[in-house]
Amino acid sequence: MNAEPHIAIRTEPFTVGEIEELVADPANGAVCSFSGVVRNHAAGRAVVALEYDAHIPMAEKLMRTIALEIGGEFAINRFAIVHRIGKMTVGELVVVVSAGAAHRDAAFAAARAGIDRLKERVPIWKKEYFADGAEWVGATEDD
Amino acid sequence: MTGTVTVTIQLFAIYRELLGQSEMTARIDADQSVADLFGQILGQRTTPKLREATLFAVNEEYVPADTPLKDGDRVAFIPPVSGG
């Protein structure tokens, strides 16, 4: 990587374009971004909103570790992971993982690895709000 | 050696809601592990499945369940993560 990765947990909304600017580099021939957005359903139930919580210092530390791992595995120039927390409604942007690289293969692979590893081990939690209640994902009896 | 240590417990997501606070202080016996502390504080409030799936962090690092605690440690109980 040509620069430190850009890592952040934010409470305010952001755009994909804003995050892609953070991975701009004259050596880039490819920029690939994964966007996670609030979906209107989960396991067959209608979802009206999501709320995210995070252990912020630990989450940012692990996101940085993941970004540095990925920088060592793929030929990328720059990398960013930005995740929003708080309550969001359907269609809002939750997370963006952006990779800038000379060529597309590395950019695609790095963005994919970034979101996969974040989901696996970064301490961020999602609460799903349904018409008739709400629950933290993975924390109920029937999950 | 016996004695007590004072630790800060950071609570997130389901655990923050179950206990109605995001941070608390606990004074515990010096030979207690992070899992023992979890058992004392949340053992009766969680299902076996959730207990099983919970990970532990001390000072912003994941640690094994049998990790002993030191005075001033910041402990976090990490329910199953669901970011993204």
List the helices and strands and how they pair.
The complex is a heterodimer of chains A (143) and B (84).
Chain A: E1 6-10, H1 16-22, E2 30-37, E3 41-42, E4 45-54, H2 56-73, E5 76-84, E6 86-89, E7 93-101, H3 104-121, E8 124-130, E9 133-136
Parallel strand pairs in A: 1-5
Antiparallel strand pairs in A: 2-7, 3-4, 4-6, 4-8, 5-7, 8-9
Chain B: E1 4-10, H1 13-19, E2 23-29, H2 34-42, H3 48-53, E3 55-58, E4 61-63, E5 74-78
Description:
The complex is a heterodimer of chains A (143) and B (84). Chain A is an alpha+beta fold. Chain A has helices at residues 16-22, 56-73, 104-121, and strands at 6-10, 30-37, 41-42, 45-54, 76-84, 86-89, 93-101, 124-130, 133-136. Chain A is built from 3 helices and 9 strands. In chain A, helix 2 packs antiparallel against helix 3. The longest helix of chain A has 18 residues, at 56-73. Chain B has 84 residues and is α+β, with helices and mostly antiparallel strands. Chain B has one domain (15-78): Beta-grasp domain (Ubiquitin-like (UB roll)). In chain B, strand 3 and strand 4 form a beta hairpin. The longest helix of chain B has 9 residues, at 34-42. Chain B is globular and about 40 Å long.
CATH superfamily of chain A: Molybdopterin biosynthesis MoaE subunit
Query: How many beta-strand elements of chain A?
Result: 9
- Class by helix and strand content of chain A? alpha+beta
CATH class of chain B: Alpha Beta
Judged by helices, strands and strand pairing, the structural class of chain B is: alpha+beta
Count of domains of chain B = 1
Query: Element order, helices and strands of chain B?
Result: EHEHHEEE
Poorly predicted spans of chain B: none
Instruction: State the share of residues found in helices of chain A, binned by percent.
Output: 25-40%
CATH architecture of chain A: Alpha-Beta Complex
Please, what is the oligomeric state?
heterodimer
The coarse overall form of chain A would be: elongated
CATH 4th-level superfamily of chain B: Beta-grasp domain
Average pLDDT of chain A works out at 96
Question: What is the H/E string of chain A?
Answer: EHEEEHEEEHEE
Radius of gyration of chain B, in Å, reads: 12 Å
Largest two-chain interface: A-B, 29 and 22 residues
| Percentage beta strand of chain B | 25-35%
Give the fraction of residues assigned to helices of chain B: 25-40%
User: Low-confidence parts of chain A, pLDDT < 50 over ≥5 residues?
Assistant: none
